[in-house]
Amino acid sequence: MKKLLFLGVLLLTIMTSCSSLDTKSQVGIKGNWTIGSVTYPNSQYIKVTSFDIADSQCFVGSSWNFISNNNKGSMTLTNSSCPAFSSPIVWTVTKAGDFTLKITEGDKAKRVTQGYFLKLRNQTETSFELVDNVAVGGKNTEVVYHFQKQ
User: What is the span of the domain harbouring residue 87?
Assistant: First the structure.
């Protein structure tokens, strides 16, 4: 009886965790993408460091690959006036439109304890936006990464 109860709870947990993901959005992101622009209010005056890597404008032109069947991929900064950076990533999209991102730098995802929570917006077949909320000058500011399909 205990085994049956345990199996039922395990099955319910698996079904609940899988149903919280938005597979349609994830499949729509599958493929190779480039960040066409990064925008936020007062960007001409204030610099924002994105993902604890580099200035947000260094991400313009960066290459991203998203694999939807295993939620892995990669990102590479390609702006020659910025630090070189490339890393594997792990990502998911929830039904609420939350986009989670781990930049693993070659480590196993379960060993990476930090990640980023962004919002997925305006998704089409050829573009989407990821929105990060960061504190800029003591105010909550939306930094918007505009992705274009390659």
Answer: 21-149
Q: Which amino acid is at 10?
A: L
Number of domains in the chain: 1
pLDDT tens digits, 11-63: 334 444 455 777 888 889 999 999 999 999 877 788 899 999 999 999 999 99
Strands 63-67 and 72-77: antiparallel
- Residue 144 located in a structural domain: yes
Give the pLDDT confidence of 57-86 residue by residue, as tens digits: 999 999 999 998 999 999 999 999 999 999
Question: C-alpha distances in angstroms, 2 versus 5, 11, 15, 16?
Answer: 5, 14, 20, 21
CA 42 – CA 122 distance, rounded (Å): 22
Which tokens hold the place of 27? 């499949």
Contact predicate 105/127, CB 8 Å: no
